[in-house]
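User: Before I run my own analysis I want an independent prediction to cross-check against. Here's the chain; please return only the structure tokens and, at the end, one sentence I can use as a sanity check.
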Amino acid sequence: MMKTFDFYFDFASPYGFLASRKVEALAQAIGRRINWRPFLIGAVYKEHGGAPLSHPLKNAYMFTDVFRRARLDGVEDMRKPENFPARSVPPARLAYWVEREAPEHMAEFVKAAYRAYWIEGRDTADPDAALDAAQSIGLDRNAAAAGASEPDIKDRLRCETEAAIKRGVFGSPFIIIDDEPFWGDDRFGDIEKVHG
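Assistant: Structure tokens:
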């Protein structure tokens, strides 16, 4: 059985977006399968205090940095989603429905949702944006809408977010591999060296 690693991300995270474009190549390079784990970074800030965008200098730098990193990764058309930073509950819930109902489409859905927010500039809190992403990859929109509203799916996101906090996840993206944490898409090279 192939070993796995946990890839934690929030759809409202620009660095999570950049990581989502490269994480499958990382998985292939180290011979592991990805456990896609969307969570709500706002719950982490609520639990531990502070938020990276509350500091005006850090806020301004972050978008200078992330757009520079995007260009270096070949992403020329990245932009801020509408109403940034908005909560990303709809796509995170929908991702767990996709994992349950059509797990073979999980990576495709994550990338489609991230594109909607960070390329098209859609609002991460808008359920229609998440449903459009699901529909764009061939999933039934009505089934997806109903599934994302199920109590089991809502509980799954809550439990995954709580589990992330207990495991020490404090940012997005965050990878845990063999109980070893790595924060940031700029640590993928380190992961290859340590676990490749």
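Sanity check: The first strand starts at residue 4 and ends at 9.
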